[in-house]
Structures are given as C-alpha cells and as structure tokens.
C-alpha cells in the first residue's frame, strides 16, 4: 500500500470521520450492538451493504477521472454524485455524506495541489458525496483502483468499530482483532468494485440495510446523541 493510501487511512487525517458512528450509536441504544460479537456482526453487515456500494462508487469515480480519457471532471462529478445521492435514502445520511466529502476534499487540497480537486468541489456546491470524493482524492494521490476500494471499505468498517469502543467501553485490542478478522470479507468487495469500475453507473451496487436507514432517521431527533450519525 502506498504512503498516500496510509495517510488517507489514518484516523488522524482530518476528514471528519471521528464525529460519526456509522449507525452504531443507534444500534447501541436499541440493543442490536452490546458487545464485541454483536459489533462484529454489525460491521460485517455494513461492509456487505454500505461498504460494497461505497467501494464501487469510489472506484467508478476514480476510473472516470482518468486524465488519459480526456473526461471533463465537472461533468463526471455531477453524474457520479447523482448516483451516490440515489443510493442514500435517509436525508440525514445524504447530508452527512456531503459534509464528509467536503471535509475530505478540503483536507486533500491542502496535501495535493491539483486542479481536479478544485473542479469536482466546484461542480457540486452542496458537497461532493464522500465515496465519490474518495475516488477523486485517490486519483490525484496516485492510488490504484484496489487501494481506492480498500480505503472506502476501511472507513466503512473502522468508523463504527471505533465508535463502539467509545460508546460501550469495549476492549480496543478486541476491536482491532475484529477489524483484522473482516479483511477477507472486504477483499471480495474490493475485487467486485474493481471489476465494475467501467460498468454503467446505474448497474453499480445499491445495497442498504432498512433497519439502519430507519434508525438513522430516528437518530436525528435525539437530544443527547454523541455522534452526528
């Protein structure tokens, strides 16, 4: 893995993920997640749904921003962002994804001075969805398609895992082992994302979890929440 990929995967990279739980806060409140084993099940489910979708969108964005193709970055941004928007049903998750994408692009522009990042930021004033922003950042950072997919899946798994540590006081060593244990599952989605990179955007995965989506809507009404999502 390249140094740029390691930088982007680092939880200390200022992309805003620390403020989100990936749905775990709601799952803890209603009892779906209460220990390491149930957190493991939640993370695996997230990888199979949101993770698979995000990885495919990120790689598709990365592929369509290939400078050798002569594509217009602004046009690419608008099209892939619309596909991401269609795959996020709860308004709160749409808004969060746009905020996270905006923050990721802001941090990346401080690291890589590239007109492509300016173009995609300007093309979607409401905020480029996080998965698409990751594809754009991966392109300017020199990442390859599998690295982009792995980053998307890494964020999808690590955000709820670390939130579980904070919410439940779980053993961080056990949670680290949990993340190591899901890598085989994640690699399947990496291969699928890379294989579908040039497929029509409408054919990309649109996986979701209805219970998680409903909980996300309810979560926005809480007065005492610790995380944004």
Quick synopsis:
The protein is built from 11 helices and no strands. It is mainly α and 229 residues long. The chain has one domain (3-10, 18-219): Urease accessory protein UreF.
List keywords for this structure.
11 helices; 67% helix; Urease accessory protein UreF; mainly alpha; 229 residues
Q: What fraction of the residues are assigned to beta strands by DSSP?
A: under 5%
Which spans have pLDDT < 50 for at least 5 consecutive residues? none
Number of helices: 11
Radius of gyration computed on alpha carbons: 17 Å
CATH top level? Answer: Mainly Alpha
Characterization of this structure:
The model has no long low-confidence stretch (mean pLDDT 93). With 229 residues, this protein is an all-alpha fold. The chain starts with a helix and ends in a 10-residue tail after the last helix. The protein is built from eleven helices and no strands. Helix 3 runs parallel beside helix 10 (183-195). The protein has one domain (3-10, 18-219): Urease accessory protein UreF. Helices cover 67% and strands 0% of the residues.
Write the layout of secondary structure elements.
Blueprint: H1 3-9, H2 24-29, H3 36-64, H4 73-86, H5 91-111, H6 115-123, H7 130-140, H8 145-168, H9 172-181, H10 183-195, H11 210-219
Helix pairs in contact: 3-4, 3-7, 3-8, 3-10, 4-6, 5-7, 7-8, 8-9, 8-10
